[in-house]
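Usage

Read records sequentially. Each one opens with the input sequence:
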Amino acid sequence: MIAELGHFALVLAMMVAIAQSIVPMIGAYQNNIPWMRFGNHSAMGQFLLVAISFGCLMHAYVTSDFSVLNVVQNSHSAKPMLYKISGVWGNHEGSMLLWVLILAIFGAAVAAFGQYLPPALKARALSVQAMIAVGFYLFIILTSNPFERVFPPAVDGQDLNPLLQDPGLAIHPPMLYLGYVGFSMAFSFAIAALIEGRVDAAWARWVRPWTLAAWGFLTGGIALGSWWAYYELGWGGFWFWDPVENASFMPWLIGTALLHSCIVVEKRDTMKAWTVFLAILAFSFSLLGTFLVRSGVLTSVHAFATDPERGVFILILLLIVVGGSLALYAWRAPQLRSTGLFQPISREGALLLNNLLMGTAAGVVLLGTLYPLFIDAISDGQDKISVGPPFFNAVFIPLMTPMIVAMAIGPLLPWKRGDLGKALKTLWLSFALAILCGLATWTLQSGQSPWGIVGVAIASWLIIGTLTEVAGRIRLFKIPVGDSVRRFINLPRASWGMTLAHLGLAMTVAGVTGAGAWTVERVQSMAPGDTVQVSGYDFRFDGAEQKQGPNYLATEGKFTVTKNGNFVTVLYPEKRTYTVRQMATTEAGIHTLISGDLYGVIGDSKSDGSYVTRIYFNPLVVWMWIGAISMMIGSGLSLSDRRYRVGAPTRTSSSTQQPQAAE
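and closes with the structure output:
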């Protein structure tokens, strides 16, 4: 009965979503307040029903109800409880149910916390949000029912994909979906603004926190996915420009551009149509990522579905949402007139440059992702090509380099009209230190990688430039130190958030540079007692032993690491074989240092008792994870800023408005 209850709640949620997509929209058109308020109640009801449905599926997994087909295909009685729970979204059907749950959460959040929104705009946004939900409810109910029964019930399940039985992968999908689906709120506000024919500073202030939340979650989701690939797959890397990786990276790039574009609309009442277009584009890329992962056109551990029927359904949904929104944009965008004027050398100009470079980078990633699929389709599978890291690195890095350079200059420029020479004069220390760091890198690595030198230089430039901007805000050395400290403490949280996000990006660039340019790898066979030296560290192989896990058998190796005869650490890499699926996975042994990671992997044994081993030293890679955490903390601090807690500035002249809180 629990499974049937979940299915019934899901159908009811779809019915509520249909009503929510119609009634508030008509109410906004007719200025009917009760009908507009219906959106609030229906959004909360929809969330409650989807939560019940999701809870029923989780109950089936936790109790190992093998009368439910989805549980049979993706769980096992011997599986640890953590992975029974994460198995709920570790498959196609469950992950789509998680998608609509998060969609309902965002809708309910707008209903609950959007008290300062004009009723008409809020009603239209909730109505658009419900229209999106209806499409996904239909998709789940018609093609991907997670509550389908199997008779007779199975004795036990087929287990979850062993690669997904990992703490990082337990958190990664929900975090990623919070980012993906979070952009639906910016999309809904954009469509509502197009219908209303109005975008202003208040609209931008309302859109920014939802975009910021989605961006922060997506940043965390991407970082968790990279971290999982780094220690779980055992290949020593964290990013391979895989199409599924790109599917999450493209909306991140557009979302970053959208965040900065909203600032221009809010502060200067310009770039309105462009900002609305970015809001549409960010969610469109999220839907495209869903199509790539769910359609079966990609082969990946992340690509759950291989059923063409599902792929066609999502493609149709994608065409309706994207095509319909772009058609509406083409019709209504000319009415969004901007009043703010600015010179190219200004803060607006720097933010526009950021937008153009981010948008171009997203286009490059899109081209590299879809081109092999296009060639495969038109050649009927006869011609297959691959677009890998060499292409993306050759095109993406030159685009990002000037953007990062501009990130340090832009905050120092005034609005409307700026003096580039004055800003560069302020950044003389950043320039000097960037040159020194580049020269030091060239000397230490003997000219091995020119991109490594550039990466270190621009990371140094952005770090010092960001700190210089903070020093200017608190007027360091220009007023008494005590006054500067007070100004520092009283900086708005949004300013702290921007600073941490920029510093986080700089640290990420440093980490990517170190691990990408100077990784040292040794592959060899090692018998117990053998030693190999990597980057000045001695790795002694002390043998391997067999271990029994909850639902796997493991070969655990032991490496004792020393440097100049001094003990550093012991690494315990594993090679696991999961007993149900008879599938092998790798667990790297990693010891993290500020300078880099000591990384060991054990492979298959040989007839002479030795083991194939891979030893890496990955310089600076820890700074990539620190940078991602810093960006997430920055987004959280910005969200907690008083401006977002008390609401947006008051809109003028609207018969349907309620009083707004002032900053």
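Summary fields computed downstream for this record:
- The chain is about 60% helix and 10% strand.
- Confidence is low (pLDDT under 50) at residues 301-305, 652-663.
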